[in-house]
Amino acid sequence: MPRAVCPRCERPASTCLCATLPARLAVRTELLILQHPAEAGHAKNTAAFLTLGLNPAARLLRGEVFDPALAGPGTALLYPGEGSTGTGPVERLILLDGSWRQSRRLLAANPWLAGLPRVALPEAPGRYAIRRGHRPGQLSTFEAGLHALALLEGEPKRFEPLWQAFFAFVDAGLSRRGESGMA
Asked: Rg of the chain's alpha carbons, rounded to an integer?
């Protein structure tokens, strides 16, 4: 018999995130997360958590090939590399959700993404202790998304309720594994 799953956060009912989420935060920048299908079922996935914590301007789309019409005026890609624009006027920010290998596959399958201006984050330590990055500065989708929004919109303190929910999520995950939390 399959486990009961929360229809809102898509996690097993025993690890539902909904109670830890604050009221949705309003953001000016539309956040569009393109998720590799292999990432969707992972219990450690933070993309759904991020979209649930933000106003309806945050959307999560799953697939491997996406419509180029998603790249309208004012659209940028959050991805490291050449062509990074810093903090120019961005109305829609696209994030790729998956492993680094999966994100490179998404880039290859959607050549229109390569033509977008890029936003790169300053290197910051990741706090997502449930998964380890292969290199310093590699962040979860949740961390990258919130850091990018704070960079683009300013006022990083207003994201604090979401950060606290994220830290509680990480602590709960570590506790289930018998490890100490972030506090």
From this structure: 16
Task: Supply 53's token pair.
Answer: 């914590």
- Report how far residue 94's alpha carbon sits from residue 71's, in angstroms, rounded to the nearest whole number: 9
Give the CA distances from residue 122 to residues 5, 22, 71, 119, 125, in Å, rounded to whole numbers and listed in that order. 36, 27, 24, 10, 10
Model confidence, pTM: 0.83
pLDDT score of 133:
53
pLDDT in tens, 124-176: 655 554 555 555 556 888 889 999 999 999 889 999 999 888 888 777 776 77
What token pair was written down for 61? Answer: 């789309």
Distance CA 75, CA 70 (A): 8
Report yes or no: 75 and 91 within 8 Å, Cβ to Cβ: yes
121's tokens: 């984050």
Q: What angle do helix axes 160-176 and 141-153 make, rounded to 10 degrees?
A: 170
Q: How far, CA to CA in Å, does 136 sit from each of 7, 78, 113, 125, 182?
A: 34, 17, 25, 7, 18
Considering all CA atoms of the chain, what is the largest pairwise distance in Å, rounded to the nearest integer?
51
- How far apart CA 14 and CA 87 sit, in angstroms, is 40
